[in-house]
């Protein structure tokens, strides 16, 4: 399976909103809305931000939101903060206990 | 919940290696555990997943012939093993716990700290 397609980089100023897209095929996304998003700071383990397209785990700020339209999922971060500067990855459950990650997006807070 | 991985390794090409992921704080046998690779400067790659209760495993086709995933329920640990390492295996390897009880949906809520494996002659 090829990785899901994400932009290599996005940037925004503090307080602004940014959106990161994640595009795949219908087989990448399977029959389920099992799209997740992870935040990865340098030298740290990934952190689950969003699951099932738009749900947030306990403790995750509501500045992070997810959506999906057709074969494109999106992560929106509102009210950008310096601590949001990190790499972001989407992932999808495809089928038969298999998953695939996106190529990752580097977020720079200007 | 904690996933604590074994320490960094430096190996030569052709050598074997087994790294571990010790789980605690939850019902180990009821949540799938995945392994994820991150090569230097590269993105996350899903390697495979195992269900500790019965050791059911699914591998990514990209990794199926090169690694072995296993568990030891008695000590709530998962393992990732190579019989013959290559330089291209140099990476950080993460274990991660599935968020869903007895199911997989691609969402992993707890991660190990990562194990750096360096393969160099």
What do these coordinates show?
The complex is a heterodimer of chains A (110) and B (121). By secondary structure, chain A is mainly beta. Helix content of chain A is 4%, strand content 44%. In chain A, the strands form two sheets. In chain A, strands 1, 3, 4, 7, 8 and 9 form a six-stranded mixed beta sheet that branches. Chain A has a three-stranded antiparallel beta sheet with strand order 2-6-5, with no helix packed on it. Helices cover 0% and strands 50% of the residues of chain B. Chain B has no helices and eleven strands. In chain B, the strands form two sheets. In chain B, strands 2, 4, 5, 6, 9, 10 and 11 form a seven-stranded mixed beta sheet that branches. Chain B has a four-stranded antiparallel beta sheet with strand order 1-3-8-7, with no helix packed on it. Chain B is globular. The relative contact order of chain B is 0.32. The chains are: A mainly beta (110), B mainly beta (121). Chains A and B meet through strand 3, strand 7 and strand 8 of A and strand 5 and strand 10 of B.
